[in-house]
Structures are given as structure tokens and as C-alpha cells.
From TrEMBL:
Transmembrane segments: 79-99
Keywords recorded for this protein, A-Z: Membrane, Transmembrane, Transmembrane helix
Ranges of residues in domain Heparan-alpha-glucosaminide N-acetyltransferase catalytic: 41-127
Organism: Stephania japonica
Coiled-coil boundaries: none
InterPro entries linked to this entry: HGSNAT_cat
Keyword Transcription: no
The organism's taxonomic lineage, starting at the top: Eukaryota, Viridiplantae, Streptophyta, Embryophyta, Tracheophyta
Full protein name: Heparan-alpha-glucosaminide N-acetyltransferase catalytic domain-containing protein
Pfam families listed in its UniProt record: HGSNAT_cat (PF07786)
Annotated region (Disordered), positions in chain: 1-30
Bias (Acidic residues): 14-29
Length: 128
């Protein structure tokens, strides 16, 4: 009987191959950074925001005409009941993306709270 030699099924990677892979990944990451600058907006979030506002307007004006679009009286779910959760999701993602780039989070939070108070007071004054 001939002795069988064990042949490894997976070839151990050479150090040169690993270095080449790392360099390729770095080049790809750099090319992606060149394509999208740091201050670029997220197009998908802007589209979702626009569709959410469009849905808000559609529900507001066609709600009385189309009963399936208007808010449900108590139980059940209709199209109008999705507007607020969509909008809150957009706000949360926008805040997370904005805070990702900020270095001083305390100052950014103070600015956000001040802006919230200003918008609230503006809304109160416009209702009077």
C-alpha cells in the first residue's frame, strides 16, 4: 500500500497577497471618498423625505374624499397613520448622520435645542 500524503485543502495566504489585498481595499475606499465628498447629502433620505411630505399633503387634502386615506377613527390602520412614523424615522436618521460629523456634541445639542425652541415659539406666534 502506498502512503497517502495529506494535501492541505486551503492554501495559506502569503504575506505579499495579504498586503496587495489591503492596498486594493484602501484604494477602493479612497476612490469612494473622492466620489462622495464629506458634506454631500444622502439622496435616498431626501427622496424619502419628499415622498413623506407628498403623502402628508395627499392625506390632508384627499382624506375627506377617500375614506381609506383618512385617519382611522379608533382601531385599524389607514394610510394617514403612517405619515408621522415615517417623518420621525427621517428625523432620527438625519440627526444620527449630523451628529456623526460633529466634534463637540454638547455644543451641537445646545444649538439643536435652541433651534427647536425658536421654531416652537414661531409656531405659537403664527397661530395667534
Amino acid at each position: 500500500m502506498a502512503e497517502s500524503q495529506s494535501v492541505p485543502l486551503i492554501k495559506p495566504p502569503d504575506e505579499e497577497e495579504e498586503e496587495e489585498e489591503v492596498e486594493e481595499e484602501e484604494e477602493e475606499a479612497n476612490s469612494l471618498r473622492r466620489i462622495r465628498p464629506a458634506n454631500a447629502r444622502l439622496a435616498s433620505l431626501d427622496v424619502f423625505r419628499g415622498l413623506s411630505v407628498l403623502l402628508m399633503i395627499f392625506v390632508d387634502y384627499s382624506g375627506p374624499l377617500l375614506p381609506l386615506v383618512a385617519h382611522s377613527p379608533w382601531n385599524g390602520v389607514r394610510l394617514a397613520d403612517f405619515v408621522m412614523p415615517y417623518f420621525l424615522f427621517i428625523v432620527g436618521v438625519s440627526l444620527a448622520l449630523a451628529y456623526k460629523r460633529v466634534t463637540n456634541k454638547v455644543q451641537a445639542t445646545c444649538k439643536a435645542l435652541l433651534r427647536t425652541a425658536e421654531l416652537f415659539l414661531l409656531g405659537v406666534l403664527l397661530q395667534v
